[in-house]
Predict the 3D structure of the following.
Amino acid sequence: MDHIPYRPERLTLLECEARGEAALARNDRRRSVRFFSDEPVPRRLVELAIQSASTAPSGAHKQPWTFVAVQRPELKARIREAAEAEERAFYEGRAPDDWLADLAPLGTDWRKPFLETAPWLVVLFAQKYGLDTDGRKVKHYYVSESVGIAAGLFIATLHEMGLCTLTHTPSPMGFLTDVLGRPANERPYILFPVGFAADDATVPALNRKPLEAVAEFLE
């Protein structure tokens, strides 16, 4: 692979800090949303978020992800039905008591109406391995790490555009492979409802951990 020059913009330290403070302020306003408007979202906005996510670094630059963007009402209805079946089994049987206790303050349950209300459902699939033009397996590296970074950039870009989402991970998620007809080398990673927040949307009044609780500096 050829290499090309890379000359990123060099800022003063004051400019670096100012941009960091601004990014922190924007990101700190981001919240997971469960109450969506049914207002249409142009496909181009979803495309931009996916393209931005795909700038993520990945093991050996294999880019082991596939984003499947769903707008068809009949597919969204099937996804909701299957997701709620798994979620109901979780809340009413599979979940241990301590997990349910931790979820209780968030006010969540097995009902997921946002899966039909949000104008888009974007399912992120992790490619366990690739396929070449002859259908032979191509090894992928650090798949979970690579796809996780792409997911973070996808969320950040949606927020930057004023859109909202939620990292929905019903367990198990194999039904997404079936409903969306995905190949055997992919596994569902996260289901993102995407849209604008409803006018009457609410979110839990949570607090994020302070810096000293999440970082240690060895200077």
In short: DSSP finds eight helices and six strands in the chain. The first strand starts at residue 65 and ends at 70. The helical segments are 13-28, 43-53, 73-94, 97-103, 114-117, 143-160, 174-180, 211-214. The beta strands are 65-70, 120-127, 129-131, 137-139, 164-165, 186-195.
